[in-house]
Amino acid sequence: MSQSDNSFEPNVIDDEMLQKAVEEQWPEDIRNIAKAEGGIDFKDVMELQLSFRNILQIDNLWQFENLTKLQLDNNIIEKIEALESLVHLVWLDLSFNNIEVIEGLDTLVKLQDLSLCNNRISKIEHMDTLQELQIFSIGKNNLTTLENVVYLRRFKNLRALNLTGNPFCDEEQYMLFVVAHLPGLVYLDFKLVSDTTREVAISNYQYLTDLLEHEEAQALAQLEEKQAQQKELEYHKTAFVEYLNGSFLFDSLYAEDTEAAKLAYLPGVDDLLQAYRKDFVSVCENLFNYGLKEYEKREAEVAEFYEGLHEVLTANQEEGRKIILDFENQNKMRLDEIHHASSHDTAESMRAEYNEDILQLSETLMTLEMQMVDQLECRDLENRHHEKLLEISISALEKSLKNELDEELPDDVREFLVDKNVIVNMVNKSHNIHLLKIDMRECDILLNTYHWEAFVKEKALQNEIDRNRNRVKEIFQYIDDLQEQLEKTQIPEPME
Fold first, then answer.
1. Largest interatomic CA distance in the chain
2. Distances from the Cα of 27 to the Cα of 23, 108, 456, angstroms
3. Would the pTM of this model clear 0.85, i.e. be above it?
4. CB 351 within 8 Å of CB 486
5. How does pLDDT run across 235-281, given as a tens digit for each residue?
6. Which of 77, 172, 230, 279 suits a disulfide with 97, CB 3.0-4.6 Å?
7. Roughly how many angstroms between the first and final C-alpha of the chain, as a whole number?
8. 45: phi > 0 → left, psi -120 to 50 → alpha, else beta; which?
């Protein structure tokens, strides 16, 4: 059956179909063994063949979490979907279906071989994450534009490509265009790319490929710069000082402050604002540098804490090993003594005494384990700036009332230079906006610091709880083993 064969009702991928498909591909003897042991676990299946089953929709494959090879060819599938969990796929065949769009492949980052032949695809797209791709077959689709092949340049490992049967294959320069734009290609349409073809292709399209290489180099440089900036920002966030290395916080004070924009027209305010900006940014940068230094100190303190904890744990474990070793050195000898005791009563007495010693050992080890278990000045600048701005504003009001202002002011600015209460309210409103921004940033720093401290403590505590639980289990198991050995030790029969 092919994609055009619709003589049967569409099927869904259910457990019954999957079970049958798995059984069919396993030898009969292995299949019988698996059935006898409770059935085949889909997690153990590495390859799955679902060809020629009239499947319309992909579904229920999440159970095959270790699948590396999947065949879904020769069905009537219309959409690539429900493959997100198959992150170990290396080989995927979706040929001979009714797929129109390449999609749903983002998580398949290990994919090396992909076949989409004989579908209805008109554009190569949505494959950016498939950087391991080596073999790609997309013949007999609806690809009409040769430039679409340029998309494949991002796959540096691509060595074999099948495009045969697409409309653009009829173009005279088809082969040379593809070979020129994909210099790493070894096979095209199932044929080895000859050196002669490669030389002619490079010669014919050198101008275009040089331009592409230049654009790609620029894009790569921009990407690397963006990644470096993001990495640096993440480091700053870890230190709780993001966006304090510059004017970011200062600019945010005025981003929503409409009153400040009007007040800026008053004589002397611009100079005041520039001085305020300079001092504010300087304080932010000092805080930024201080924050980075404090972060390094915190990291060093945490490392020192875990180093000290490791030393204490090592000493504790060494002491525990010594206690057990001393006990073990006497263990076999004492069991032999019990076994060869002169009488039953003597053996019972020795066994009871030895059992007490085992319980004492347990107490000693548990006691040892329990000992182990028990073991920012921006606001001041804003206030000073507010006082000076208020002085300038009231002075401007007084000059305005006396018609002594030389500057030409916008009408909306002159409107508030009529009453002292109006201008004081404007300055106070601007001041409150700035203080709110500063308070919020300070609160962020403090909260992040508290959260970090809580996380470090919680992590250290949880690690110790987990270690302690495992150690207690080991002690109980060891004591149980000793008591079991003691119980199994044969003693002389009692005298009649």
1. 132
2. 8, 29, 53
3. no
4. yes
5. 998 888 899 898 898 898 888 888 888 888 888 888 888 998 899 88
6. 77
7. 88
8. beta
What backbone torsions phi and psi does residue 211 show, to the nearest 5 degrees?
-65, -40
Dist. CA 274–CA 471, nearest whole Å? 64
Phi then psi dihedrals of residue 187, to 5 deg: -125, 135
Residue 96 DSSP label:
S
- Taking only the tens place, the pLDDT of each residue in 117-160 is 999 999 999 999 999 999 999 999 999 999 999 999 999 999 99
The letter for the amino acid at 150 is V
Alpha helices in 239-343 (DSSP H): 248-255, 258-263, 269-339
Task: Pull the structure tokens for residue 455.
Answer: 């996380």
Q: What is the CA radius of gyration of the chain?
A: 39
Bridge partners, 135 (sequence order): 113, 160
Q: What number is the average pLDDT over the span 341-353?
A: 81
Please indicate, yes or no, if residue 193 is contained in any of the structural domains.
yes
Helix H or strand E encompassing 187: strand 187-188
Element housing 55 (H / E): strand 55-57
The rounded distance, in Å, linking the Cα atoms of 62 and 181 is 37
- Find where tokens 């347990």 sit: 362
Provide the 8-state DSSP code for 495.
P
Beta-bridge partners for 160: 135, 187
Residue type at 61 in one-letter notation: L
- Does residue 439 lie within any of the structural domains? yes
43 lies in which domain range? 11-222
Instruction: Provide the sign of the torsion angle of the four alpha carbons 478, 480, 486, 488, taken in this order.
Output: negative
Residues 6+ apart with CB under 8 A from 202: 180, 183, 209
Please give the Cα distance from 484 to 331 (Å, whole number). Answer: 13
Residues 29 and 157 in one domain: yes
